[in-house]
Amino acid sequence: MSPALAAFLRPSPFALKFATKGVLAMALALYAAFFFDLDRPYWALISAAFLQTRPMSGMVVEKGICQITGTFVGTCVAVVIMGCFAQVPELALGSVTLWIGLCIYGASLTHNNLSYGCVMAAVACMIIVVLTSSAPDDFFSVALARLSELSLGALCAVVVSALVWPIRVRDHLGQLADTAVNATFRYMALAFSMPLEADRAGSQDTAGQSQGHSQAQLKGQQRERMAMLEQMMTGLDALNNLEIDAHSARYEGPQGKGRIRGVHLLTRRSMRLYATLKALHQLRHPEFFVPSQGDDGEAMVPTGELNQTQGQEAERFSQPTQALMQRLGAAFQSMADNQGTAQARKTLKELRGECLRLSRGQRSITALEARLLFSLREVLGHALVILQAREVINHPGRHQLRQPSMSWHRDHGRAVIDALRAMAIFSATAIFWLATAWDNGAVAMLLGTLFSGIFVSRGDPAPIIPMVLKGLLLAVPSVLLFGNVMLSHAQHFVPFVIIFSIPLFLGLMGSVVPALAGIALPFVVFNILLVMPDNGMTFDVAYTLNRSLAAGIGLIVTIIGFRLIPVPGAGWDKRQLIRATASDIRELAERSTERLDSWFGGRMGDRLLRLARHEQTRSREQEARRSGENASGQPDDAQQQVLGMPLLTLGLTGMDIGRGIGFVRRELGNDVPRPVQHALRELIHALADDYQRCARGESPTRMRAAGDRLCEVIEQHRTMSRHKQALLAGWLTRVQLTLQSDALRQQRS
């Protein structure tokens, strides 16, 4: 049975509860609106419907507060506009256009439900000005009615969400935290358990394997790589949802703020862990990072350099170090399989002590191996903190934690594009309304403004808007049957609500299925908007079709607007994020060493999540393309595809560079000789420049000389111990290899 049929014929208990809660909230809002004799009760229904899309108690409260606040602000702005331009509708609509652009600009820069509040400020102002432009004397009564209706719907949704089968944000956050931690540990288990390339090559030579076996081995490596990618994406997706949903926990009691701080700690440390793991995996498996051939089959790396990176990595690390990494893989796999937290902490502390003993017990240790052992200790330390963060999320009362929130990346260029698009959509529908004097033209203006704002948070809303149009097409026959035929026979409120709730219940039940949500939720909204239940409603089929036509025009104009002014894609985001990251790397030379890591990590967290979302989209497109090629009979060239994650890898490299700079600055301290300070500043600027170069596919040119200069100056002035100097040299070598590898990957991608 297809998922679409199963959603209605075999619904899950959660779907039935979700639909029941939504219908109860809307029924309560409708009854209250009728009881208080409000002018347009259907606005209370729409308000309750939008708040029930995420039925968790804290989220409904937060979204309701943002909706009421946005509506109040929009009403105040409408008062100012009508006070100035009540006699000139054209100027009033022009002022509304500017206000819509400002609100959508703010929605694009904000996150969580604050974005929804900005959209509601635009919608409330637009509704009030448009409805009263022909009758300015009724302005205050209309403004008060809209504010009352939307606030009433929000209040009813909050009450039902809190009393009927309440779903707590804390449980949701706990599940997401478990998913993120377990996926991270599985990724670490795969990374450390994968044997070295030289070991594979040796076993292949001993057994005398054929060339066909070599191809099978390449495919096996690709499967291992894809398994790691899948676990990383699972973890990053859970972290992304955690950061989006965590702020609602503050409305579920005094422990909510503790959970929020735990989420910030988990996200920040997980990002650092992924950056360190990526560097460690590159040291152990350079064959995954330095491609030997381009798409045309020509060598991209000289044979001598390739042999050095692929044939000698086993000699880089001693046998005890390799055995330790195998133990790490087994330990993390056990932790991912729900090993107890206490036992996991004990295991991590034992392994961390073993790393320390190895680093101090080996005399002839190379700079790279010293850096690797130091990074292993960092990884284990991050894992311990991640376990603590999960405990804080689940049991915040047991821990006292002070953790600053993340700094969100704000793309002002994209916000301007979103604002211009929303203004263009509203202007087109407003001109159409003025030119035709069509009563239902306001519906087109409403939908254009609403959806151009709601889709701001979507990476690529182009595929979603046609689904909204399908929801409208399905809602029209439903409204004709239930709204015009059956409702006309309802003489009392109870049969009226029962009949009216049937399509709403079905739509809410289908919205639980992700594949149907883009159709089912608009189906619910359009059923309310086209029926328009109130005390003086008429059952006119022609009026319903006329209103449906206006809704279709509004959606078509919105689709055209997104086609003509598309959302900036991955290329735009990549350039903006890389430029911002390089700017932050340069700023590390000037900022105080106190809380340097928390400042840089907080700013990088949101960037990594954005790059991860683009990486997920790119991976799905590549998988679909490969499936199409295999289905058409073409050979599987998976090994010639761009391996790894070129977008996310750049973000992880930036995180690793920033953390390394923080380590160097802390080890040098504040009282640094001027030559060392100057050499460190030169290295930081060289790293930022080479980071931008590798993002363009160009090899690094400045950091090697700047790094050598810094090491020489440090040795001359003895500002760092021998052991720390070895760690610094190992880090510089690793970063050089990383930037070269990233540059090659960007060329191929």
From TrEMBL:
It is found in: Cell membrane. Residues 613-640 are annotated as: Disordered. Residues 629-640 have a biased composition (Polar residues). One of its GO terms (molecular function) is transmembrane transporter activity. Pfam families: FUSC. Keywords: Cell membrane, Membrane, Transmembrane, Transmembrane helix, Transport. It is a multi-pass membrane protein. Its main location: membrane. Residues 613-628 have a biased composition (Basic and acidic residues). The keyword Hydrolase does not apply. The keyword Membrane applies. One of its GO terms (cellular component) is plasma membrane. The chain crosses the membrane at residues 18-36, 114-135, 147-167, 415-435, 464-483, 489-508, 545-565. This is FUSC family protein. It comes from Cobetia amphilecti.
